[in-house]
Amino acid sequence: MDEQQYKKFYVDWWNVRNSTIYGIVAVALFAGLIGGGIWYGSKNNWFQAAVDGEIPKDAAKIVSFEGEVRITRAATRETILVTRETYVAAGDTVQTQADGRAVIQMIDGSVYSVRPNSTVVVRDTTSLFGGKNVRVRVDGGQLNVRTDEQGADVKNIVELGDSENQLGPKTDASFNADGTTGGEIRVSRGGIETTIAGETTSLTENTYATVNGGRLTAREKLMLPPRPVSPANSEQLVDGGGGVSVAFRWQDPEENPAASFYLQLSKAPGFLSDSILVDRNGLASRDFRLTGLAPGTYYWRLKATGRSGQVTNWSDAWKFIVVRGVASTDIDASEWKVESLGGTVYVVSGRTQPGRVIRATGRDTFAAADGTFKLQVSSPSTEIAVEVGDGRGNRAVFIVSLRSGTLLRRL
Length: 411
What we know:
The chain has 411 residues and is mainly β. It has 1 helix and 33 strands.
């Protein structure tokens, strides 16, 4: 009988004033408004730090920069260091230091690359009735310019000495200033209309010209930079003790034998004066040997002087790495195989202890749980140095033949 009785539930009712309920609702609404405002402000960048003043209409944008880059404002004559938010307005001067470079996008979509130790003045950057005017003066150093498609109402002009150079669409060109009287013009793609003292000359693709004394003093086929051969880019050299001997080799610019070469070797990619180890100009041969290089990372580049006196741009910098050959009896590797993928590209595989780090030609990978590894490398040589190491600094270097895949020796 007791089991059939209903259970009793008791509810206590609280007496709450209307004013208390209204207060709770008001607080909740206020908190919601504050939270919503913060969210909306974040979405619309209300809380970002203020940029370098109000950005003027038609200002150019600094896409990227590295090292020390300065801008002198035309309006205030104030010199500032470039940051991520800095813009470039008409009249401003851009100056890069020895370690500095900057990439600037103009209002017509053209890209200006200011090289180290250069001074460039943005004379004009305006848009009017659909047309766009860009005018820049190179006072010192080197400026590289690239344009894409552009309309007939676009004028992109670079001043160099006494010359005005209007760039056409789809043009790649570089301008090297030589004091205030002139310099060098290189057109690798597209075309330029060069005007000096009212006379206009067309400079077409693969053309080199010099401006000096108010006239165009030379015009010839553009020479490309020398082509590095060895040591290969990202190649790893093993120091068995006492430093390594490095043989630098290169080839002439394509279809244009050079009269002499200029070689630089540096411990930093920017080739700053205090990092350069070799600075040899006037080399007649196409090789150079250096001994006693200690372990470290090195960068090298070349330029050439033609028989006419034309000097090329620097080649792209290549790097190589010197590692110390410290043998470790605890580290071993076997089952070496090499698969050619064509040209100078190979896949080197083998087996070692699981988790070991395998490095070669600037690339690395880890041995799998069963100890196997594969590493894609690129080398023009017939053999390669493969380093196998652990997390405690122990390592061993194996010299493997890229032709047969056999282990030649261990260091």
